[in-house]
Amino acid sequence: MTTLLRNCRPMGGTAADLLIEGEVITAIGAGLPAPEGATLLDGQGMLALPAFVEGHTHLDKSRWGMGWWVNEVGPRLIDRIDTERATRRGGFDPATQSARLAREFLARGTTRIRSFADVDTEIGTAHSDALVALREALRGTMDIQVVAFPQSGLLVRPGTLELLDQALRNGADIVGGLDPSGIDRDPKGHLDAVFGLSEKHGKPLDIHLHEPGELGAFALELTIERTLALGMQGQVVLSHAFCLGDVARAPALYAALAEAGIAVATTAPPSRAVPSVRAMRAAGGRIFAGNDGIRDTWTPYNMPDMLQRAMLVGLKNEFRRDDEIAWALATVTDWAAEGCGFAAYGLAVGARADLVLVEAETVAEAVVATPPRRLVLSHGRVVARDGVLAS
Amino acid sequence: MTTLLRNCRPMGGTAADLLIEGEVITAIGAGLPAPEGATLLDGQGMLALPAFVEGHTHLDKSRWGMGWWVNEVGPRLIDRIDTERATRRGGFDPATQSARLAREFLARGTTRIRSFADVDTEIGTAHSDALVALREALRGTMDIQVVAFPQSGLLVRPGTLELLDQALRNGADIVGGLDPSGIDRDPKGHLDAVFGLSEKHGKPLDIHLHEPGELGAFALELTIERTLALGMQGQVVLSHAFCLGDVARAPALYAALAEAGIAVATTAPPSRAVPSVRAMRAAGGRIFAGNDGIRDTWTPYNMPDMLQRAMLVGLKNEFRRDDEIAWALATVTDWAAEGCGFAAYGLAVGARADLVLVEAETVAEAVVATPPRRLVLSHGRVVARDGVLAS
Questions:
Q1: CATH number of A2-50+346-389: 2.60.120.560, 2.60.40.1930, 3.40.50.720, 2.30.40.10?
Q2: For the segment B281-308, what is each residue's pLDDT rounded down to a tens digit?
């Protein structure tokens, strides 16, 4: 199939046409001739952006579309973990919920998602397996990376390590880790275990690190040491890494992360100090963004809308200038694709034709106004108009 | 005019009808009989909220609807002030812009606004006068409080004090102050001057206090001393008061503010520490929210949408439970009406019939999802449907 998308403004630049052959953008320019038989799309002068990347979410936890769940959870991390495990027993279907949320993401212009999937001794590999099945079902429409994630603890919950191993054999793409000290009470043991799984399966690693201050910085250093020792540069992500917002020696840590090729995933929560996008980029490192949970028992907030996340990244990092707000967008586009390892990304010749049209003059306006998605293309096909999926 | 609004759910409770006679809600209950000749409105089981209150904005600065303005401003406060003064000379019309933004607020369910209006030696009282004229033009549809605000400094810019005095004589409702040390370099002199104006005109006071840490806490204490000495409890607002997020002795300051009847207005910016809603309420004090500037040369962010602001307040204060998220809504409803002194407020018999219907199960859902405003009533009349003004 050949498509000519006429009169859109890539990244807010001058009007151009995009020629799409099959799944790939093959030409970008003004006044491109329409090949015979090509489908014509009218971009109406709208802003064109590459389709978005969700770099950190939990598709398998969301209660999106299930009716409102009244949150009466206590304030501690363990209250949230316990509440979730208890509510899951009441007939929560991760396959249905993951699919539902993925489709909402697609309708709002996201075609690539890195999602964690809980693995524990109660649910086994069911959530991870469900996400692997969803990944296959959506192949050709969306790219989903599945992280097998020990949400309830790894070493503290015997049997979980074997289940993670099983989830990876069943097709999960990435090994997940979680608070080596705060949850597992054994930073060396936890990190040796997850790096070991990563090495065994030849799969990347993504570690939730909520631990604050020097405790988090210690785990971060242990992670750097193992990444370098195993030659896993470019294969490791630290999610949250709140400690980078806490400690005075953060500049040295940003530099060390950059040198070790470890990327940071941030949700840019307004309520606490977080890694600085500016500092991480200045150090030559990679940082990208995600929603974390959406409408689940952990938090009622967040939307399957990466422009809203970019807005929150911009507000958190106090990006006011247009050139700075473009960085906020990059955390949910180019930088997220790089950090997660999604290939063929971008609004460029040779990239896969995944893109979004919105009514906005500039990239910065798209970020601050989060306008409706007028048109979403994935793999060269129109998949949504005005927030409604084509099928 | 009599209106019966049937089948809505006030604050997410059980379905009820609201009887509105003239501008006032005169009955709330299930199955109210329709008086002869009453206009009937179908609430379709939607959630009903009191119309919102914008507690801190700058209508006269917004470039809403003027086309995108590329922000290339430097990082300092003085860069922002200077840029604004320079761009204003290029044909910016505060009357048009204020009216445009006020109407956007109304379409999204806000009927009461406290707006600052710049007063300085370059523009004189023109912005304040324009807002006073807008206030009169919108009387019967929206309530606007005009704060005469020395944005470019008061004592450092001779002639400004006389202009503020003139703006108040011309009808501005409230005396504005700004960073007594940071901008005016004379905390005693600045505060004596603005309290003096307040006393002279018998009008309340609202002071922008960006000053961090102990410098801000010092100005806060000077403000408390003067409020008590002049018996102005309930007449003074401190806007921003970032210092409350900075200093370890904040608990004593919350208590002192509460005792002095000084309310705090917060914009809950994600990028820095701010006053805690929970702590201020626990101390028995008043705190409410506002957007600050919207789409102006200071910041491209923010929307004339108080549900979005409530969401940001909730995220900033880490309100996850439904009962906590109700507090976030209160910062743009009841608490803002109290803090600003807007009368006849609420979704209750005897209150003015200003209300909003949205598709949401609960108050918390309305805050986190910021759904479209299906119906907005002001003064008992339908003023907007689906975000479009009735006239």
A1: 2.30.40.10
A2: 999 999 999 999 999 999 999 999 999 9
